[in-house]
């Protein structure tokens, strides 16, 4: 009899846990271990945050492929890395399958239908900086959910959309412990968030500290709608209505129709070769692929290793190539659906060789018309994923500025991007980031704003993935990817060393070499100055996530500049 009662009690306890679902046992996610270097044979994820890396790796272990894991990582970053992870933004994916299939997916945000070229100008025609940076008018129509939906429908192996989103729903619903960096980031924007949102959001006003639990119930509900209804859960119905109502009531122009009309696009990748390696990278509306191709082409005639990492001669060569390519970016690049970008001509090797003909190894060639300082926002994020079959995914995704427009869309809990600021707000003059914009990148309804995001996959000479790489960093994205590829191919570095190495950047205008503090010795700086260069130290450049595949092994490097985490199994 005693035994029987015990059995009934046990059954009742099991019923409580199983019958009432998991709620009784769900906990905030607080256990982080950050690994900067990882090795494995079966799969690897390198991302900006240990929660996202864990979620992706779990999907790989459950038999998902690199695309499944990437979708899970993208949604996880929207919860754990609000400064750049997003469902309110967009991104680009570069994919290489174990069967040799190559694809690039453009889920960049689009200008709403009511957008027009003068929308951020005052009556005198001067840019009103704040409007394209902060608040409800700064956002393009988000592309992330559509992008993930299309990637899932085309390439998922797990065929279980819900399983890819559930970990993120749980994290939003039950909470995530903040890292010190995330806590500091939220504290840094608390005041502007309060102003922009006219009061309280889940992020403000509050002084956060490491280990505090961030709970995002509205975001959890939005993710549930996406889990249950796919892309329509976001772009149609209740959520779309709330997004549009919130944005329009706060001075924006995004309609329900804009959301319903959003489409992501599979595009022809940019393919080029560097020292016999096939480089697969992103075409317009990113400038990243074209500029990266030009920079690599400019290096090819030179023996980079013998010039020496961070030597005067190599830094000068790289800067002179960057100066020329970023000049092309300013004039020729924009959304190729709206503007005839001369893509083929720009990525011809002979074109770059011609451009470098006046390269003088002893002298800087000054960029004309120095205008504004470097102000490109840098809070994008990148992740690299490889699965056990050798499928590789390289995704860079963004809200543009740190925490995007800092506008938390009411009732749906996500932060809206401020990607409209990546357009040339006034063609013909330097844009708000110090980059010169032109007709090619002027605002037009339905157009995508020019990007620098450069998710890239490099193949080895057997046409198998060799390097999976990318980074945030605004206009510095391209030069950081460029330097990482040289670090690996020419300087022979492993993945962790290649992402940790100090970096520098030049973007034509302003005519300035920007360096990290620990990059370039005093002697090299003096020599470069004598050649006519202007140099300034700045903060950290980029957060590169790289995977190297070699001899059946995966080696990951997560950038030491952030909470970035590499894990493998
Ligand atoms: N918002 C940064 C970029 O797309 O380049």
Molecular structure report:
The chain has 569 residues and is α+β, with helices and mostly antiparallel strands. The strands form 5 sheets. It has a 7-stranded antiparallel β-sheet with strand order 1-20-19-15-14-9-8. The protein has a 7-stranded antiparallel β-sheet with strand order 7-4-3-11-10-2-21, with helices on one face. The radius of gyration is 23 Å and the shape is globular. The N terminus is likely disordered. The structure holds glycine. Glycine binds next to loops.
Concise overview:
The chain is built from 19 helices and 21 strands.
Mean pLDDT, all residues:
92
Share of helical residues: 25-40%
Give the helix tally: 19
Q: Could you give the distance between the termini?
A: 49 Å
- Structural class by secondary-structure content: alpha+beta
Secondary structure layout plus pairing:
Blueprint: H1 2-19, E1 37-40, E2 44-47, H2 50-61, H3 66-80, E3 90-96, E4 102-107, H4 129-133, H5 144-155, H6 161-174, E5 176-177, H7 180-196, E6 213-214, H8 217-229, H9 232-235, H10 237-249, H11 256-261, E7 265-267, E8 270-274, E9 277-281, H12 288-299, H13 304-307, H14 312-332, H15 343-346, H16 349-355, E10 380-386, E11 392-398, E12 407-408, E13 415-416, E14 456-459, E15 465-470, H17 476-489, H18 495-500, E16 504-505, E17 513-516, H19 522-530, E18 535-538, E19 545-550, E20 553-558, E21 565-568
Helix pairs in contact: 2-3, 3-5, 3-6, 6-8, 12-14, 12-17
This protein binds glycine (GLY).
């Amino acid at each position: 009899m005693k035994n029987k009662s015990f059995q009934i009690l046990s059954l009742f306890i099991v019923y409580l846990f199983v019958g009432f679902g998991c709620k009784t046992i769900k906990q905030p996610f607080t256990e982080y271990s950050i690994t900067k270097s990882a090795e494995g044979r079966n799969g690897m994820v390198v991302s900006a945050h240990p929660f996202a890396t864990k979620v992706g790796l779990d999907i790989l272990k459950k038999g998902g492929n690199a695309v499944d894991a990437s979708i899970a990582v993208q949604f996880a970053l929207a919860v754990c890395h609000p400064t750049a992870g997003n469902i309110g933004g967009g991104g680009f994916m570069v994919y290489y399958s174990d069967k040799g299939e190559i694809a690039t997916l453009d889920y960049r945000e689009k200008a709403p239908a009511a957008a027009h070229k003068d929308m951020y100008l005052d009556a005198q025609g001067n840019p009103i900086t704040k409007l394209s940076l902060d608040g409800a008018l700064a956002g393009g129509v988000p592309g992330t959910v559509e992008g993930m939906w299309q990637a899932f429908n085309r390439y998922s192996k797990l065929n279980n959309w819900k399983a890819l989103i559930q970990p993120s729903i749980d994290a939003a619903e039950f909470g995530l412990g903040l890292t010190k960096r995330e806590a500091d980031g939220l504290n840094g924007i608390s005041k502007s968030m309060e102003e922009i949102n006219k009061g309280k959001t889940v992020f403000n006003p509050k002084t956060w500290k490491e280990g505090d639990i961030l709970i995002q119930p509205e975001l959890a509900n939005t993710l549930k709608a996406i889990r249950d209804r796919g892309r329509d859960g976001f772009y149609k119905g209740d959520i779309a209505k709330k997004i549009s109502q919130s944005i329009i009531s706060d001075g924006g122009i995004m309609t329900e129709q804009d959301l319903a009309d959003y489409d992501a696009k599979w595009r022809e990748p940019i393919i080029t070769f560097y020292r016999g390696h096939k480089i697969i990278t992103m075409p317009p509306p990113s400038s990243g692929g074209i500029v990266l191709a030009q920079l690599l082409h400019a290096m090819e005639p030179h023996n980079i290793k013998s010039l020496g990492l961070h030597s005067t001669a190599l830094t000068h060569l790289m800067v002179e190539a960057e100066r020329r390519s970023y000049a092309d970016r300013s004039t020729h690049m924009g959304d190729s659906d709206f503007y005839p970008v001369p893509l083929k001509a720009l990525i011809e090797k002979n074109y770059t060789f011609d451009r470098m003909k006046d390269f003088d190894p002893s002298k800087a060639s000054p960029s004309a018309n120095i205008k504004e300082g470097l102000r490109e926002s840098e809070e994008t994020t990148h992740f690299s994923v490889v699965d056990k079959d050798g499928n590789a995914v390289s995704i860079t995704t963004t809200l543009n500025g740190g925490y995007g427009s800092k506008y938390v869309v009411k009732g749906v809990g996500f932060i809206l991007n401020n990607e409209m600021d990546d357009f040339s707000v006034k063609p013909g003059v330097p844009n708000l980031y110090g980059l010169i914009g032109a007709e090619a990148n002027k605002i037009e309804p339905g157009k995508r704003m020019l990007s620098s995001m450069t998710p890239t996959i490099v193949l080895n000479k057997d046409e198998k993935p060799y390097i999976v790489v990318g980074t945030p960093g605004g206009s510095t994205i391209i030069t950081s990817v460029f330097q990482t590829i040289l670090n690996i191919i020419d300087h022979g570095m492993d993945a962790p060393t290649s992402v940790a190495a100090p970096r520098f950047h030049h973007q034509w205008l302003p005519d300035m070499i920007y360096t990290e503090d620990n990059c370039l010795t005093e002697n090299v700086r003096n020599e470069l100055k004598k050649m006519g260069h202007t140099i300034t130290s700045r903060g950290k450049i980029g957060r590169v996530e790289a995977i190297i595949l070699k001899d059946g092994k995966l080696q990951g490097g997560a950038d030491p500049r952030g909470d970035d985490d590499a894990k493998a199994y």
